Amino acid sequence: MLLVLVLSIFIGIFSVVLRFSLWRNKCSQLMPGKKPRFFDILGDTKEFIVYDTWPDKYLWQMNFFDVLRRRTEEYGKQQLFCLWITYIPFVVIIKAKAVKELIEKKVSRKFFFYKWLEPAIGTGLLTSDASKWKQRRKLLTPCFHSDILRGFLPDFNEYSQKFVEFLQEETKKEFTYIETPVTLLTLDIICETMFGVKIGALGNDSSQFVKSFRRFTEIIILRVFKLWNWPNCIFKHSKDGKEMMRHLKIVHDFTRNIIQEKKKRYLSGQRDQDNRKRKALLDLLLDRHMEAGELSEEDIREEVDTFALANPNIEPLNEFKKFSMTSNVCVKHFNLSAISLTVLWRSHSIMVLISSEETSVGRQERWTSLREKSPE
Questions:
Q1: 249-270: string of b/e by CB count within 10 Å (b at 16+)?
Q2: Which of 296, 206, 287 is nearest to 256 (CA)?
Q3: pTM of the full predicted structure?
Q4: From CA 88, how far away is CA 100, in angstroms rounded?
Q5: Where does this protein reside within or beyond the cell (predicted)?
Q6: Which candidate, 205, 287, 298, 313, places its Cα nearest to that of 255?
């Protein structure tokens, strides 16, 4: 009986691997890239995993991009190439012409990396599907009118002056890691323009909110490089996953407390005396919530957290960009083509650039989609 059970499990696992291997083998013939052996479950993953044994926590991440650089050199004459992380295809686009073809197509479903952000920002503007995105975009666009942004110019000038004074003190030191004060300055400006509150991060980097915000963004970025943490069922029980949830609670509590405080002031008639040009994003969204009922309190939290997280000057995001630049000796492949890395995974189909049989310079390329569904 036990033998039959073990045999059944083995046959089941083998059939699943066989099905995925057949699908991957068929797809890999349609685009440039190394062709994994038929029963090679890891695919190109092996080239990335080896670097995690290195002592420096950043070296293996830099080598992650080094693999991309070497592949880009190898397939530099192509429009794109494919990396197989187990049975998941990552299509890396290296020519601007291919990018143009891509952005002309309607891709309504986001890459699964976006799912990792949902615990942090829910289904806000960054992570929502097409229908919700259009609705939210319509609501949020007026909040970024140029007249409203101009109202914050005095604040930008004030924080810029504080930053200059901070740097003057830093020049007395032998060395300064500039990204840290830039990140703190950015958080100050975010909290002023998004929440309408001053947190003084530049002069007080020991604030629990500041620490938690920086740490959870770092964990999200590092997860990209830790392939074993990709499945949510593993990540949420991992050390990083538990730590991220602790920091997220602090960030979410901070946002919710501000929303509640602003709402109480609104209901008690103690609204800010500033005119509309001086309202923070949170105040504008509360107007929508209280007057039109278009947004719930949780919707408001999602959006303000989304814009805070999406800020380009957050330190871990800068680290991510820095790795891609410093490890890329052949900058022309990335910068002159106006991209660094494009990853695409479209609802169980792979977008493939197939060249016509003509080899002349003026040949036409066309995008097609492999309609064979990925095994589920």
A1: ebbbebbeebbeebbeebeeee
A2: 296
A3: 0.65
A4: 24
A5: Endoplasmic reticulum membrane
A6: 298
Cα separation, 303 vs 128, whole angstroms: 11
Q: Rounded to an integer, what distance in angstroms lies between the CA atom of residue 187 and that of residue 184?
A: 5
* Tens-place pLDDT, residues 205-255: 677 888 888 888 888 888 877 778 888 889 989 999 999 999 999 988 888
3-state secondary structure (DSSP) of residue 274: coil
The answer to whether the CB of 351 falls within 8 A of the CB of 91 is yes
Q: Which of 76, 77, 80, 87 minimizes the C-alpha distance to 32?
A: 80
User: How would you class 156 by CB atoms within 10 Å of its CB: exposed for 0-12, middle for 13-18, buried for 19 or more?
Assistant: middle
What are the φ and ψ backbone dihedral angles of 372, each rounded to 5 degrees? Answer: -70, 120
Sign of CA dihedral 144, 150, 151, 154: positive
Mean per-residue pLDDT of the chain? 72
Question: Would you state the pLDDT for residue 54?
Answer: 52
Give helix 315-326 / helix 59-74 axis angle, nearest 10°: 40
How far is 351 from 338, CA to CA, in rounded Å? 20
Q: How confident is residue 59, by pLDDT bands cut at 50, 70 and 90? A: low
All residues at 6 or more sequence positions from 297 whose CB lies less than 8 Å from its CB, including other chains:
256, 259, 260, 263, 289
316 against 28, higher pLDDT? 28
Position 287 pLDDT exceeds 50: yes
178 SS3 class: coil
Three-state DSSP state, 366: strand
Burial class (CB in 10 A: 0-12, 13-18, 19+), 92: buried
**351 and 99 Cβ atoms separated by less than 8 Å:** no
**Tokens standing for residue 182:** 């830039």
Backbone angles phi, psi at 81, to 5 degrees: -150, 165
3-state SS, residue 98: helix
Angle at 324 between CA 320 and CA 330, to 5 degrees: 170
**Which domains are present in the chain?**
31-94 (no CATH), 117-349 (1.10.630.10)
Residue among 116, 138, 136 nearest 125 (CA): 136
